[in-house]
Amino acid sequence: MKHLLDTDSLSDDEILEIFEEAKKFLNGKQSKVLQDKLIVTLFFENSTRTRSSFEVAAKRLGAKIVHLDIAKSSTKKGETLKDTAKNLAIMGPDAIIVRHKHSGTPELLSKMIDTPILNAGDGAHAHPTQALLDLFTIMQYFDDVRGKKIAIVGDIKNSRVANSNIKLLSRFGLEVILVAPPHFLPFTKLRTAYYLSEVINEVDIIMSLRTQTERHDKPIYASLKDYANDYCITKELLGDRDIILLHPGPVHRNIDIDDAMMGDKRCKVLEQVKNGVAVRMAVLQKCVLG
Amino acid sequence: MKHLLDTDSLSDDEILEIFEEAKKFLNGKQSKVLQDKLIVTLFFENSTRTRSSFEVAAKRLGAKIVHLDIAKSSTKKGETLKDTAKNLAIMGPDAIIVRHKHSGTPELLSKMIDTPILNAGDGAHAHPTQALLDLFTIMQYFDDVRGKKIAIVGDIKNSRVANSNIKLLSRFGLEVILVAPPHFLPFTKLRTAYYLSEVINEVDIIMSLRTQTERHDKPIYASLKDYANDYCITKELLGDRDIILLHPGPVHRNIDIDDAMMGDKRCKVLEQVKNGVAVRMAVLQKCVLG
Amino acid sequence: MKHLLDTDSLSDDEILEIFEEAKKFLNGKQSKVLQDKLIVTLFFENSTRTRSSFEVAAKRLGAKIVHLDIAKSSTKKGETLKDTAKNLAIMGPDAIIVRHKHSGTPELLSKMIDTPILNAGDGAHAHPTQALLDLFTIMQYFDDVRGKKIAIVGDIKNSRVANSNIKLLSRFGLEVILVAPPHFLPFTKLRTAYYLSEVINEVDIIMSLRTQTERHDKPIYASLKDYANDYCITKELLGDRDIILLHPGPVHRNIDIDDAMMGDKRCKVLEQVKNGVAVRMAVLQKCVLG
Fold first, then answer.
1. pLDDT for the residue B80
2. Which of A125, A153, B154, C272 is the least buried, fewest Cβ under 10 Å from its Cβ?
3. Residue B179 pairs with which residues in a beta bridge?
4. Average pLDDT estimate for A21-41
5. Is B78 within 8 Å of A214 when comparing Cβ atoms?
6. Which residues of C carry out catalysis?
7. Which residue, among A190, A180, A136, has the nearest Cα to A159 in the 3D structure?
8. pLDDT grade for B73, boundaries at 50, 70 and 90
9. Which residues of B touch A30 (CB under 8 A)?
10. What is the ipTM of this complex?
11. Of B3, B37, B125, B127, which one is the catalytic site residue?
12. What's the mean pLDDT in A168-178?
């Protein structure tokens, strides 16, 4: 593994090894293993959350970061993606963390240059570190994840988080059920449901997705409130069932998840954020040092 | 003291202790005491000046900085302040430096999370490190500040700088006189004057405030020039009186202070900036290391 | 040499000394010689490329960087350039890297403050580190550069890159020929030509300039395509001549240089970027440490 384009870039063993390292970092392991390394963030889309998680991870390991804010940059001056990439790579960074609104951009970059590329989200395609931290979080709560059932709820079709999780969680033996209105469902062989109530008695985990209102040109629901009526994860809905609740953040309160569930112990959103830094430390260590 | 929300967070002894440290830094003391510490700046308002002063201070002590530019961030995606704060805190920074246009935001944050919060300015409420550096600067010029008279001049009502200074300087025994047109005066028990000429023969210190044109929805003066006619600190006005002149910056030349006074030895604006870095180093050291 | 305002700031010996250092950095020399140094970037114009090259150079040497994004800053609040400079200098940075759209700004700053100023491009006046890296790149390909002929092609009149190169390359004994339509030519004693075909059989080096469409208020060519018809550097035009091709980047493909030449071994654009980091490391080292 050199690049992290999708979770497919990693074997099962490599993933478990990353998780072992992440656990050590969570338990307070200090390491300056990336001292003297230079990591570039190349974000064609804004993402305070993912970018700062990567930045905290890199800096905890001693790396230096150079941010390229592409919205203001050379790509606006008629430079091609390939030229931007080659110009960047020749400066000798030890890794490039990329986010782009078009699926496949990180893979394209990885074919143009030798520098390790870490995908921080590309279009509706993949968000591998998110899926890794989600699986890591699930594994903290179940001794054996094989056979566990997870409902992914929301705008699955347009979600790179859902896409990466479907692949990764299925591979580790979880049964993934997609819960969404028809226009939010991808073509799939997976089991699907229109309402969470249809499967709530079976599932061990619920992953609520962000209502990506900014990704749709036209409103699909009459209003967010209409969407929330059907898909908001409420404490009323969960009752006292033994289910853990995940969400990639930022949470639309009372649209994605209601206030009562946000304050409930079963909601693991903050654990995900915490685990995200640790998993990204382990991923950066692996990508940069090989 | 864990958070620095207002100067009230600090006892007199703690303030004097901070000043002792700041003096050492001014005298060239090198210290990497915050090596391996991670400090987040969370600015909901732009502030090149204050942010860069904190950044220089933190980096001189060896800390790493992660900037969260909230204008582009999750809060725009429907996340609440509380969720932003909790998401940030769980990543484990050693301190968070906050600026917000609403009074009380840093205090709110300090109740939500355990991370030390440093207030870098909240609405018209407080700007504690500014008041500390102002008192520190005054103390450089007077062996005993008790009984010294300071005129604070300008839009006092809307100024967090004035607000923090009124509290801090009064506490250290200075007599504060507020000089402003009626609509710029707060309700106060302090002595007030409409024109500086009324008190110029008594005062030891003048603190000119920035004309905060961007904070008023409607113009209050017909023009800045009309304001300047009455409130610009001119060399003509000061004559050869033994008075030191302060201003939090950036100075509107010939509106707040005229060119002649800006070039005069009695003007301590640059000393304030220099002292600001040293005081913030001492404050960061205290907040982060306890 | 304290400031780097133009290449005139440097003697021939100093330039060759900088190149010797740059070569060592290219050959893998590691040095933390700027550890504990603080360098400020003060960019009044956006420039991802130059700024990130300086940032990578500074961080490789162990320096800390504070970026001042002036577009959002105090200058918008009515502060003069002089006050901004003095406020910055008093915070004690070890160097300030400046870009400004007005010619002469770095020189002005150098007269106002004591901090070393590095010019990262000012108006149409100068871009000294670009000229240095260009000469350095040329020297990699010729044992003796004296008497070598270089054609500079494009909007020379408005180009600080051309301006700095004309002075520096002439000084090191190269013959500079300016190739441009009349309205892109400055008043000059240098040899000029309207079309590259007139001099192509004589030259050893071609330097293509960026079509600075954003610097002209009115379009000068009917279209970029019309310009490209006359001035794009094509493989067809160069044939198999032994000529090296330079460009300061970012390249407008098929306007400045065609795809075939961009992929040709004679095109040294990426070498320039690579050399740029090494040359800037050497320049920073010299300016900061004296």
1. 87
2. A125
3. B153, B193
4. 97
5. no
6. 49-50, 77, 99, 127
7. A180
8. low
9. 36
10. 0.92
11. B127
12. 98
Residue B68 CA: distances (Å) to CA of B43, B65, B112: 7, 10, 18
What tokens does C281 get?
């490391």
Task: Look at phi and psi of residue A239 and say left if phi exceeds 0, alpha if psi is from -120 to 50, else beta.
Answer: left
Predicted pLDDT of residue A227: 87
Residues of chain C that touch chain B, judged by Cβ-Cβ distance less than 8 Å? 36, 38, 40, 64, 66, 68-70, 72-74, 77-80, 83-84, 86-87, 90-93
Q: Using the beta-carbon criterion (under 8 Å), do B73 and A273 form an inter-chain contact?
A: no
Confidence of residue C268 (pLDDT cuts 50, 70, 90): very high
Q: Among positive and negative, which fits the CA dihedral C80, C119, C43, B38?
A: negative
Q: Which residues pair with A42 in a beta bridge?
A: A68, A98
Q: Do A48 and B92 touch (CB under 8 A)?
A: no
What is residue A186's DSSP assignment?
Answer: P
Q: Which residues, 6 or more positions from A200, have their beta carbon under 8 angstroms from its beta carbon?
A: A151, A237, A238, A241, A243
Q: What is the mean pLDDT of chain B?
A: 93
DSSP calls for B153-207: ES--TT-HHHHHHHHHHHHTTPEEEEE--GGGPPS-SSEEESSGGGTTTT-SEEE
Q: What's the rounded mean pLDDT across residues A45-53? A: 89
Residue whose tokens read 């400079």: C85
What's the distance, CA A13 to chain centroid? 20
Q: A214: which chain B residues are within 8 Å (Cβ-Cβ)?
A: 77
Nearest CA in chain B to C93: B56
